[in-house]
Amino acid sequence: MYALLSRGLREKLNARHNKAYLRINTVIASLAIVATAMLLSDGLLTPSISVLSAVGGIQVAAPGFPQGAVVAISLVILLVLFLVQIFGTSKISFLFSPIMLLWFLCLLAIGIGNITLQPGVFRAFSPSYMFQYFIRNGYNGWASLGSIVLVVTGAEALYADLGHFNRPAIRTSSFVLVVPSLMITYIGQAAALIVNHNSLVAAGWDPNGNAPASQYGTVVVSNTFFNAMPFWAFYPMLIIATLASIIASQALISASYSVVNQVRASF
Amino acid sequence: MVLGTTGGDEEDGSVSEHELDVVAPSELTMSSTQASTPPPPDANDATRDVTVRIVEPYRPKEAFYPHRLSVLSAYPLPAESEMSTMVHVVPVRVIPTVPALGGPGPGASESGVLYTLVLAYKSIGIIYGDIGTSPLYAFTSIFGTETPPDEDNVVGALSTMLWTFMLVVVVKYLVRRLMFFVQIDKTNNKIDPSPDR
Question: What one-character DSSP code corresponds to residue B63?
Answer without folding.
Answer: T
